[in-house]
Write a structure and sequence with these properties.
The protein is an alpha/beta fold and 140 residues long. Strands 1, 2, 3, 4, 5 and 6 form a six-stranded parallel sheet that branches.
Length: 140
């Protein structure tokens, strides 16, 4: 059984909803799942999991949330090499540039992106919820 961490930051609840759907998908595929907020996760937990889903909404000028999520994620970057991960998040403006930049960062760090990232505008609709569940299954 794969051990999966779902790590997220959410300001409005949209990314939290996505995180719960990712966790549901991984559980339905037989994985052992632990859900963490960004404040609850740290680099020293990276090796405790077979795969990790990271979720963060677009903030400011299409960037990761910079007070909790980005500092936590930066400390995890040295442990991304060879690690299976997946990315998800919501946005309220822009075109998803923050996700493309984040994916490039992860690839440059040597992470293995297990599937396409999932983004949705504002609150996840049925299509986005299903994509989040599929992301969780792909990690499992």
């Amino acid at each position: 059984m794969n051990k999966i961490a779902v790590v997220y930051w959410s300001g409005t609840g949209n990314t939290e909803t996505m995180a719960n759907k990712v966790a549901d998908g991984a559980k339905s595929a037989g994985a052992e799942v632990t859900l963490f907020t960004a404040a609850e996760f740290s680099a020293d937990k990276m090796n405790d999991f077979d795969a990790i889903a990271f979720g963060c909404p677009s903030m400011g000028d299409e960037e990761l949330e910079d007070t909790e999520f980005e500092p936590m994620f930066s400390t995890c970057e040295p442990s991304l090499k060879g690690k299976r991960i997946a990315l998800f998040g919501s946005y309220g403006w822009g075109d998803g540039e923050w996700m493309r930049t984040w994916e490039d960062t992860c690839r440059n760090d040597g992470a293995i992106l297990a599937c396409d990232s999932v983004i949705c505008n504002e609150e996840p609709d049925e299509e986005a919820a299903a994509a989040c569940e599929a992301l969780g299954k792909a990690l499992a």
